[in-house]
Write a structure and sequence with these properties.
34% of the residues lie in helices and 10% in strands. It is an alpha/beta fold. Helix 4 links the parallel strand 3 and strand 4. Helix 8 runs parallel beside helix 11.
Amino acid sequence: MATKRSVGELKESDLKGKRVFVRVDLNVPLDDNLNITDDTRVRAAIPTIKYLMGHGAKVILSTHLGRPKGVTPKYSLKPLVPRLSELLEVKVEIANDCIGEEVEKLVAAIPEGGVLLLENMRFHKEEEKNDPEFAKKLASLADLYVNDAFGTAHKAHASTEGVTKFLKPSVAGFLMQMELDYLVGAISNPKRPFAAIVGGLKVSSKIGVIESLLEKAKSKGVALLLPTDVVIADKFAADANSKAIAKKLADLSGKGVTTIIGGGDSVAAVEKVGLADKMSHISTGGGASLELLEGRTLPGVLALDDATSAAL
């Protein structure tokens, strides 16, 4: 996969006063009272947004939340605003939609360094259908495009792929860049010794990765070990002497080994035992990470400008 242009290449002269459409992945879990139970994805989006704010851009954030069928109040992005505002140290405004006259007025009112959050992209069925007219309406709000939503990069949606046909430059955000560097690097140029632990809640989404690893392992004469659990214990009992694999990975990280954790449940497990910050990289990608490791290309990444393309 070709190296993509990064938001870090854009200077103040490229960004000051410009409206930047930023696709982020703020698809966070909420409890019954609509409180965020894990803000990992919100925190991961902050560096790119702050960079744009710091260079005088007018930031327009877009994301999805859940799988709504049309406008569904429980999937509104309003509960995300307080945490987003707190982390960005600025009052984040929110629109009641992502297209239309009201949204256009709010966009026109964004000050330099200000942030507007558009309402859930998936309230419009045209988003997932990658409808060109819908993508054009989204693109009309902005001057350029940044995709920092690696978690949806495997989907060709209006806000991840469609808008790139109307906005130039279209560049990768810092999180997108980091995910690609770690994951593409891990596969194409792995540091030896190299180990992959494949686990998680949904077996179906891992089959392709396992097949890819099996084929590569076979051609290189590498043995593939199939573990039966993520805990090694001396007996099947609550009081058994046990070791969690996560602790071993954390130890290895400290010895210079590259450790990458991906997939929602695996990330949650590592967070739960307080070892997330000991790993080299925690992938926010889920399905996108898996598809990349399978050797597939990601539409949301392919749509971005190549690093070799002409400057603004």
